[in-house]
Specification:
By secondary structure, this protein is an alpha+beta fold. It has 14 helices and 16 strands. The strands form four sheets. It has a six-stranded mixed beta barrel with strand order 7-8-13-10-12-11.
Length: 451
C-alpha cells in the first residue's frame, strides 16, 4: 500500500491510499481530490477568517517558548508605559485636588525683585503693613486680606528641636489659606491685638519634635526665638506647598506678636488677598494693582515694584511640568516597544524561512497572495495583542504596588489600558507587514524546491 499527501491552503493534509495493482484507480482518486479542491476554491474564493486565525494559533502553539519570548518585549514595553502614565496621571490628579482645595480666588502679592544681568539683586520696594491696611480699607472686591511675615527659625521643646517656618499672620489665616485644624483652636483677633505668645503648629513640626499624636503638645510651651509660646492648636497635614516646600512644616503666630517680638520689623514677605468670587478675580487683581501703585507713588512710566500671582498659576506650572515629564518617560519606556516590534519582525522572518516549502505548496494549490499575507499578519497581531493584554496586567500590578507599598498617587483610566492594547496591535501590524509581504511574494516553483 502506498500513500500520497496533499497539503491544502487551510493546512489540512489529505491522505490518498492505493493498493498494489490499483494504480489506475489511485491516479483517478488523486486527480479527483485535486479537482474537488480546485472546485471548492472556486466556490469559496479564499480561506475564511476563522480558518486563518485557527492556522495562526496552531503555528504559535507549535512554538510556545519562542512565542512567549517574542511577547516578552511587548509585555515589558506596555507595562513600563502604563506605569509611567499612571504615575503621571496620579500626579496630575493630585495637582487638581490641590487646586480645588486652594480655590482660584486667592491672590498672592510679593515684592518685585530687581534683576541685574539676569540675577536677582534685591527688592525694589518692601511691602509693609501699611500696604495691607490700604488694601483692606480701599478694596471693594475683596473677601479678606491677610498680611504675612515668615522666617525659618528653631523651635525647641524640652531637649528636642526642629527648624520650621515661623509665620506671623492674622487670625483669618485658616480661612484665607485653606488650612484646617486637626486639634485645638486658632488664635483670635483679640489675642493678635494683645500680642499674646500663642502658636499653632503644622503637622510636620509635631513629627519633627519626635511625636506622632497631635494632642501631645497641645497646651505645652515651645521656645521660638528665645521666647515661650503656648501651643493652642495643630493643623491637619496638607502636603507640599506651591513653592515645593512642605506647607506642614510651619508655626503660625499672631501677626503683631511676630512684628514686635520676633521679627521686629514691619516688612511683609507676602500679602494674600481673597477675591469675593471667581468672577471678580480679574477686578480684584486690577484693584490691587491700582491701590498699590498709588500707595507706592509710582508714575505712569515706572514699572510695578510688586508682583500679583494667582494661586492657580503655581499649580498650572506644576501640572505642565508634570505632563512634560510624563511624556518624556513614556517615550523612553516606548523604546522597549520598538525593540519588541523588531523582535517580532525577526521571528516572523525566521518563520517565513522555515515554512517556505509549505507556502510554495499552498500557493501551488491555489492560495492567493492575500491569504498568505493575511495569515502572517494575523500571527504577528495575535502575538502583540496577547502581549499587550499581559502587559496591561503587569502594569496595573506595578501601579498597585507603588500606591499601596510606597504611598505614591497613581491613576490609570480604562481608556489608557485600551489604548495600550491597541498600540500593541499597531506595533504587530507595523512590524509584521514586511515578513508577510515577503511570504506572499514567494514564487511557488522556487519555494517548492527549497530544502
Amino acid at each position: 500500500m502506498t500513500g500520497s499527501w496533499l497539503i491544502g491552503p487551510v493546512g489540512i493534509i489529505q491522505h490518498v491510499e492505493s493498493r498494489n495493482g490499483d494504480d489506475g484507480d489511485n491516479g483517478g482518486t488523486f486527480n479527483s481530490c485535486i479537482g474537488t479542491h480546485i472546485e471548492s476554491r472556486r466556490h469559496r474564493g479564499s480561506m475564511q477568517p476563522t480558518e486563518v486565525f485557527s492556522v495562526a494559533l496552531a503555528s504559535l502553539r507549535a512554538n510556545k517558548l519562542r512565542s512567549a519570548l517574542t511577547m516578552l518585549g511587548i509585555i515589558i514595553g506596555i507595562a513600563a508605559v502604563l506605569a509611567v502614565v499612571g504615575l503621571g496621571q496620579g500626579a496630575q490628579q493630585s495637582v487638581e485636588d490641590r487646586l480645588a482645595s486652594l480655590g482660584t480666588t486667592l491672590l498672592q502679592i510679593n515684592p518685585q525683585r530687581e534683576r541685574r544681568g539676569g540675577i536677582q539683586w534685591g527688592d525694589l520696594r518692601r511691602l509693609t503693613f501699611a500696604d495691607a491696611e490700604q488694601l483692606a480699607e480701599r478694596g471693594r472686591h475683596f473677601a479678606a486680606v491677610q498680611p504675612q511675615q515668615d522666617r525659618d527659625l528653631q523651635v525647641v521643646y524640652g531637649s528636642r528641636n526642629a527648624v520650621a517656618s515661623v509665620v506671623g499672620a492674622t487670625a483669618n489665616f485658616l480661612a484665607v489659606r485653606g488650612f484646617e485644624l486637626d486639634v485645638g483652636r486658632m488664635f483670635t483677633s483679640g489675642e493678635d491685638r494683645g500680642m499674646q505668645r500663642v502658636a499653632v503648629l503644622g503637622a510636620d513640626v509635631v513629627r519633627d519634635l519626635g511625636y506622632v499624636s497631635p494632642t501631645v503638645l497641645l497646651g505645652e510651651n515651645v521656645r521660638i526665638a528665645g521666647r515661650q509660646f503656648r501651643v493652642i492648636g495643630v493643623m491637619k497635614a496638607r502636603g507640599r506647598a506651591e513653592s515645593g516646600n512642605s506647607s506642614d512644616r510651619q508655626v503660625i503666630i499672631p501677626s503683631r506678636t511676630g512684628r514686635f517680638r520676633v521679627f521686629k520689623n514691619d516688612r511683609l514677605n507676602d500679602i494674600y488677598v481673597l477675591a469675593a468670587s471667581d468672577s471678580l478675580v480679574s477686578l480684584a487683581t486690577a484693584e490691587i494693582h491700582s491701590i498699590l501703585r498709588r500707595a507706592h507713588r509710582l508714575r505712569t512710566d515706572q514699572p510695578d515694584d510688586f508682583r500679583i500671582r494667582n494661586q492657580a498659576d503655581f499649580l498650572t506650572t506644576a501640572a505642565a511640568a508634570t505632563e512634560i515629564f510624563t511624556y518624556l518617560l513614556a517615550g523612553i519606556a516606548g523604546v522597549s516597544l520598538l525593540v519588541g516590534g523588531i523582535g517580532i519582525m525577526n521571528i516572523m522572518l525566521v518563520s517565513v524561512t522555515e515554512r517556505t516549502r509549505e507556502i510554495g505548496i499552498r500557493k501551488a494549490l491555489g492560495a492567493t497572495r492575500r491569504v498568505i499575507l493575511f495569515q502572517f499578519l494575523v500571527e504577528a497581531l495575535v502575538i502583540c495583542v496577547l502581549g499587550g493584554i499581559a502587559g496591561v496586567a503587569v502594569g496595573t500590578g506595578m501601579l498597585a504596588i507603588m500606591e499601596h507599598g510606597f504611598g505614591w498617587a497613581t491613576t490609570l483610566a480604562p481608556e489608557a489600558m485600551a489604548g495600550a492594547v491597541a498600540f500593541a496591535a499597531a506595533v504587530g501590524l507595523g512590524f509584521g507587514v514586511w515578513p508577510a509581504r515577503r511570504a506572499a511574494s514567494l514564487d511557488p516553483i522556487v519555494a517548492l524546491r527549497y530544502e
